[in-house]
From TrEMBL, chain A:
Residues 274-298 are annotated as: Disordered. One of its GO terms (cellular component) is box C/D methylation guide snoRNP complex. Residues 289-298 have a biased composition (Low complexity). This is Nop domain-containing protein. PANTHER family: NUCLEOLAR PROTEIN 5 NUCLEOLAR PROTEIN NOP5 NOP58 (PTHR10894), NUCLEOLAR PROTEIN 56 (PTHR10894:SF0). It comes from the Archaea. Residues 161-275 form the Nop domain. It holds the Pfam family Nop. GO terms for molecular function: snoRNA binding.
TrEMBL record, chain B:
The keyword RNA-binding applies. HAMAP family: RNA_methyltransf_FlpA. Interacts with nop5. Component of box C/D small ribonucleoprotein (sRNP) particles that contain rpl7ae, FlpA and nop5, plus a guide RNA. This is Fibrillarin-like rRNA/tRNA 2'-O-methyltransferase. The lineage of its organism: Archaea, Methanobacteriati, Methanobacteriota, Stenosarchaea group, Halobacteria. The gene is flpA. GO terms for biological process: box C/D sno(s)RNA 3'-end processing; tRNA processing. Residues 1-33 are annotated as: Disordered. Its EC number is 2.1.1.-.
Length: 298, 210
């Protein structure tokens, strides 16, 4: 029986679907063997057709469970939420542009941008064309509200998923970094040089092909420590920030405890960098390390 | 002479054009004609290998281990003409789409596993006649080497090397040479680029040496 020691069906009752599923999913083996014939010999299956039927059932159940677990993980939900937030904002802006073009032909006081949609949405339309304009304005308002709700969800969720990263980057930028990396684990495994240019892939590949200088920063540009550092020192600031963000992501993924000293290390480092150009010390003008809200990243 | 197509794969006219086709449940909106559905060589590297006339050694009815099954575009066709087909994919999102494809095919066994870690599926996968490899990861030769243990003595490795997965900046030719150098325990029988179907891809047919 030593041949079947590793088999997913070893010692299994033929009707124990749950255990079969768990074995397929979490088991291991040293060497592939003629499992179908061995299973018949061991009495797990009546013939190889029966074996394949059991295998089909077990692999489907195991894989379905593993996929669901991976996709409903909190970091995956955060990734979907922040992408939806960006999508709703982009679409709301596009529709608002169309709306102001159209509304300007019927209402003299129609403004531009998503804010102009709110008063339009409240109007009493006269005639079928105005009815469409007002209705379109309502969609813009709804989309904008949805964007705000998604943002609130991201701000609530990110600190649970990645506490250190969210504390240092702000929840929205933290969520964007997780999204760009494809999850918290892949982010934790990236070198800090990659984290520094996440979101600047076009510029990075242009550089690698020899057509451009290397990008200094990707989405981390929205962070106060990059954006409000003198352009001459922005590369250094981006490098320092990315280094600490990578460490934060690793702590969040591998241990999950809070390391406030990461933030103070970063504050010191940025202060040193900014001192070179006579910039104000970090934290002088607002909450430390909090990027300003807005979808103005790359 | 162009090698014969495996049993269960035919060139059939679709919109007055001869195209590869297999019989099975449609998967990705491909054109169908009765039971037959088009195997689009532009979307499937194995389909392209057959289209450009490589000698894959496929006869139909083989046992197959498919690494990098993704959402099942190609592996669905393989399961249509092959025997027991083990589909390994590492990423959860495409695997979600692979599930209904496997549900409709009783000989297709989906596995959410890392092809770089064969020990995580050696307790499920039996020795196979054909190892198909289409993984977009660095170290594609190492994946083939580690999975050689699944191949029967007279089996075939059908690998597609994606130059961009190894190094986006390198010359694809160099990447292909490095892959062939790093392949160990295999005798390479044939190589071909998959132009015009897939740019910067090299298709390799090899057999294990013992």
């Amino acid at each position: 029986m030593s041949d079947t020691e590793d088999a997913w069906f070893a010692g299994l009752a033929p009707d124990d679907i749950e255990e079969a599923t768990a074995r397929v999913r979490d088991g291991t083996g040293d060497t592939p063997r003629e499992w179908p014939t061995l299973a018949v010999e061991a009495g797990y299956a009546t013939d190889t057709d029966d074996y394949y039927q059991r295998l089909h059932e077990a692999t489907l159940a195991a894989t379905r469970g593993a996929v669901r677990e991976a996709e409903t993980a909190d970091d995956r939900q955060l990734v979907h939420a922040v992408r939806s937030m960006d999508d709703t904002e982009r679409v709301a802006n596009e529709l608002a542009e169309r709306l102001s073009e159209w509304a300007g032909t019927r209402f003299e006081d129609a403004g531009t941008g998503v804010d102009a949609a709110r008063p339009l949405a409240e109007r009493d339309p006269t005639g079928p064309a105005e009815a469409r304009i007002v209705s379109l304005a309502r969609r813009v308002v709804d989309l904008t509200d949805e964007r705000d709700d998604l943002r609130a969800f991201v701000e609530r969720t990110a600190p649970d998923v990645a506490p250190n990263l969210s504390a240092m980057a702000g929840p929205v930028l933290a969520a964007r970094l997780v999204a760009l990396a494809g999850g918290l684990e892949p982010l934790a495994k990236k070198p800090s040089g990659t984290v520094q240019v996440l979101g600047a892939e076009d510029a990075l590949f242009a550089h690698l092909r020899g057509r451009a200088s290397s990008p200094k920063h990707g989405v981390i540009y929205v962070h106060d420590y990059v954006r409000n550092t003198d352009p001459d020192e922005r590369g250094s600031a981006a490098r320092a920030l990315a280094g600490k963000l990578s460490i934060a992501a690793r702590v969040d993924h591998y241990s999950g405890d809070l390391r406030p000293e990461l933030q103070s290390d970063l504050d010191d480092r940025i202060a040193t960098i900014r001192a070179r150009t006579g910039d104000p010390a970090p934290g002088a003008g607002g909450p430390e390390g909090t990027p300003e809200p807005g979808g103005d990243d790359a | 002479m162009t090698p014969e197509l495996p049993d269960g794969v035919e060139r059939r006219p679709f919109d007055e054009r001869e195209r590869l086709a297999t019989r099975g449940d449609p998967v990705y909106g491909e054109p169908t004609d009765g039971d037959w559905r088009v195997w689009d060589a532009g979307r499937s590297k194995l389909g392209a290998m057959l289209s450009v006339g490589m000698d894959t050694g496929l006869d139909g009815g083989e046992t197959v281990l498919y690494l990098g099954a993704a959402s099942g575009t190609t592996v669905s066709h393989v399961a249509d003409f092959a025997g027991p087909t083990y589909a390994v994919e590492f990423a959860p999102r495409p695997t979600r789409d692979l599930l209904p494809v496997a549900e409709a095919r009783e000989n297709l066994f989906p596995l959410l596993k890392d092809a770089r870690k064969p020990e995580t599926y050696a307790h499920v996968v039996e020795p196979v006649d054909v190892l198909v490899q289409d993984v977009a990861t660095r170290g594609q030769a190492e994946v083939a080497n580690r999975n050689r243990q699944f191949l029967r003595e007279d089996g075939r490795l059908l690998a597609v090397v994606k130059a961009r997965s190894e190094d986006v900046t390198a010359d694809p030719e160099d990447v292909f040479d490095e892959f062939l150098d790093a392949l160990s325990g295999y005798e390479v029988l044939e190589t071909a680029t998959l132009d015009p179907y897939h740019e910067d891809h090299l298709a390799v047919v090899a057999r294990p040496t013992r």
